Amino acid sequence: MNLHSENFPQRPAWTEIDLGKLRRNLQLIRADLPRAVKLLAVVKDEAYGHGALDVARVAVEEGAWGFGLSTLEEAMHLRDGSIIAPLLLLGERQHAELEWCVAHDLTVCVNEPHNVRALAKIAADFGKQIPVHVKIHTGMSRYGVRWDEALPLIEKVLAEKSLSLEGVMTHFSQSDETDKTFANLQLARFDEVLSAMKQNGIFVKLQHTCNSGGFLDLPHAHRDMVRVGILTYGVFPSQVCRRISGIEPVMSVKAKIAAIQKLKPGEVVGYGMRYAATSERRIAILPIGYGDGFPRVRNEGCALIHGQRAPLVGGIAMDALMVDITDIPQAQMWDEAVLMGKQGTDEITVRDIAKLKNSVTYDVLTNWRLRLRRKNVNSKITAQKIGTLATK
Ligand SMILES: *Cc1c(COP(=O)(O)O)cnc(C)c1O
């Protein structure tokens, strides 16, 4: 019995990844960018829970120059999957990781002087000249060398024959809100470094600053490349940033009705008796719970069944949640319910789930558990077919 065979019966609860929508989002983003600006698709954390390798394969076809990742494992996973595009490791590397990075052509961000010598030595031992990106902190105080101390680090990189300065970058702390004051201050600090470089005759191929928010709202910050994450997956980084029409969420979460209960007035549902029926009710049990990443709610939220909203009743359990289907008499065992995504004309958005979780959309996308198997759909739609759609 092979767990990975196509015949293995799938659990009646899953995340659905619409690779056709992913492709379309990438096309819309690419079409919105000036041709000369490169697209770095950010696929860290399994492409925000969408499956990094499948996402990367589509993104390569849709003109992504390279990929942004967080961990060495993530990058190796793509290399093992035959992705040969540049892979930029955001964040900081431990010394022991550098050899792997050099051996597998993973591009390292340099944040401070410490690793420069070590990286240069390893590259020289491999007989390679490797590209590096210097990360400059311009006010976010996370990774990166301070903007007013960046030039010496850049010169240190240039002094190493086995390193080539491919990029200088910074990251915005607030790019997707209406007030861009701080983002523009960060950009001004970044530009101070660039003019100091220019005065010293230092040339760099790729300046890059923008995440999704910056890509949408700070066109003057696009420079040579943008690093787009969440928008690729069809979710806008905030409610106030610019919209691109046609962008659609790639991920849905679905389950099939696994039991139906008829309640008489006064009868209760679930642990802790958090819901009591005030009249005769019909309740559907969906085999998905907080153990799958659904927020731990009580009498809040809903599922879409036959295109209608079925309110969640009682407290959610590890493996089950209950919804009221009294007003959906046609609902039957094993009918499909949508917990996040579209059904008919209605939609439960990633943001709706984030509200239930008291968190952000990024957290919702990345925190569905893997026991909800990912099911890719529309993977066969070819680039050309959607391309024709996009031009209509
Ligand atoms: C995660 C990340 C991005 C992508 O951010 P989104 O808001 O998802 O577009 C870009 N740059 C860096 C350095 C990041 O860590």
Looking at the chains present, what oligomeric state does this protein adopt? single chain
Residue-averaged pLDDT: 95
Biggest sheet layout: 10 strands, mixed
Shape: elongated
Low-confidence sequence ranges? none
CATH architecture identity of the largest domain: Alpha-Beta Barrel
Describe what this molecule looks like in 3D.
The chain has two domains: 19-233, TIM Barrel, CATH 3.20.20; 251-377, Lyase, Ornithine Decarboxylase, Chain A, domain 1, CATH 2.40.37.10. It contains twelve helices and 21 strands. It has helices spanning 19-32, 44-49, 52-61, 72-80, 95-103, 114-125, 150-158, 181-199, 212-217, 350-357, 361-366, 383-391, and strands at 13-18, 38-42, 66-69, 87-89, 106-110, 130-137, 145-146, 163-169, 206-210, 225-228, 251-256, 259-263, 268-269, 275-276, 281-286, 302-305, 308-313, 321-324, 336-343, 346-348, 373-377. Strands 1, 11, 12, 15, 16, 17, 18, 19, 20 and 21 form a ten-stranded mixed sheet that branches. Strands 2-3-4-5-6-8-9-10 form an eight-stranded parallel barrel, surrounded by six helices. α1 crosses α3, α1 packs across α12 and α5 (95-103) runs parallel beside α6 (114-125). The two termini are 47 Å apart. Bound molecules: pyridoxal-5'-phosphate.
